[in-house]
Design a protein that fits this description.
Elements: E1 4-10, H1 17-25, E2 32-38, H2 45-55, E3 59-63, H3 70-80, E4 85-88, E5 94-95, H4 99-110, E6 114-117, E7 119-123, E8 126-130, E9 164-167, H5 168-172, H6 187-197, E10 201-204, E11 209-212, H7 229-242, H8 247-267, H9 274-290, H10 293-301, H11 305-315, H12 327-330
Parallel strand pairs: 1-2, 1-4, 2-3, 6-10, 7-11
Antiparallel strand pairs: 4-9, 5-11, 6-9, 7-8
Protein name: Glycosyltransferase family 2 protein
Keywords: Transferase
InterPro entries: Glyco_trans_2-like, Nucleotide-diphossugar_trans
């Protein structure tokens, strides 16, 4: 019986894949499987993965015939997973030896639906620890309660799928798949759905995941139109949260987070191609108009002056697109 399925998408990461695969070898166990999803790479990555399938214990190579993006590649891995627990790793990141065994032990001991863990961000030679924004560690908690408060960083603001481990029952209940085709912010609707739908979770302080930041091929470093998928991702968060029985309690957090992300992108708009920058302004203005306006007003009133002013100026550009159905009334 497979105890843990690790889903690892790869796309044009030939410079980093050997480190990732070596760290998986240092985490191998006879009841672990590593689902290596090649998302139609065009460099030397496929050959590296072919060798890994032969040499890495538990490795299973899955190939896409066309590039689908990270969300689609993760879904391919989920569809093939057979483990009692599931986790993720990106093809340019790496792990400390034995990390998965320790993470699995924590999940089994706590007996929760999922566990979230800290990680180390690596930018060139710099190392920086990022913590799950949950104060109580190694305790069984209610995921919905960790969404709030609206005006502070919470668990849904730490959306990285690879920073945790998840019971298979969550997959069977439809809580682990990603929105197919999202090219960026794919973790945002996912983490919100997970916290609304799961019954229990815990945060632990294991530091065994090393996230490689600043990779030139990473979409977060590319200012093309795919970056604008964050609009579609957060529209989904708002729509699904508006349909939640506790929408009045949860929507202020969703709106405030959406506003913060829009402001972040506008604040670094120079990194986008000119046509994409224009589209970013237009789509963001429309997004502000779609939000429940009473909740939006409260969110803007509670933000710092710079971000609030930026969004208020943008709001005046908004067209007549209707607000999220039923959201304002629910609030």
């Amino acid at each position: 019986m497979v105890k843990l399925s690790v889903i690892v998408p790869f796309y044009n990461v030939q410079a980093y894949a050997p480190d990732t695969l070596a760290s998986l070898r240092a985490n191998a166990r006879e009841d672990f499987e590593f689902l290596l999803v090649d998302d139609c790479s065009t460099d030397g990555t496929p050959e590296i993965l072919e060798r890994a399938e032969r040499e890495l214990p538990g490795a299973v190579l899955i190939r896409h015939e066309r590039n689908g993006g990270l969300a689609t590649a993760r879904n391919t891995g989920l569809d093939a997973a057979s483990g009692a627990y599931i986790t993720f790793l990106d093809g340019d990141d790496w792990l400390a030896p034995g990390h998965y065994e320790r993470l699995l032990a924590a999940a089994e001991e706590l007996g929760v639906d999922f566990v979230r863990t800290d990680h180390v961000q690596c930018t060139a030679r710099e190392r920086k620890v990022f913590r799950v924004p949950v104060g109580r560690r190694n305790e069984v908690l209610r995921p919905r309660d960790a969404i709030l408060p609206a005006d502070r960083s919470t668990s849904v603001d730490y959306p990285m799928a690879w920073a945790g481990i998840y019971r298979r029952e969550l997959l069977d209940r439809g809580l682990l798949h990603f929105t197919d085709g999202l090219r960026t912010a794919e973790d945002r609707p996912w983490i919100w759905r997970l916290h609304r739908g799961a019954e229990s979770f815990a945060a632990v302080g294991l530091l065994g995941i090393f996230y490689r930041r600043g990779v030139a091929s990473s979409l977060t470093q590319i200012g093309d139109v795919r970056q604008l998928d964050f609009i579609r991702a957060f529209d989904q968060v708002l729509e699904e949260t508006a349909n939640d029985p506790e929408s009045g309690r949860l929507l202020p957090k969703a709106v405030r987070t959406y506003c913060a992300v829009i402001s972040h992108h506008l604040g670094s708009i120079e990194r986008f191609e000119p046509s994409v920058a224009r589209k970013l302004r237009s789509m963001s203005a429309d997004a502000l108009h779609r939000m429940p306006q009473d909740i939006l007003k409260d969110a803007l009133d509670g933000m710092d002056g710079e971000r609030s002013s930026r969004l208020r100026r943008l709001r005046r550009r908004a067209t007549g697109t209707p607000a999220v159905s039923g959201a304002a009334g629910a609030a």
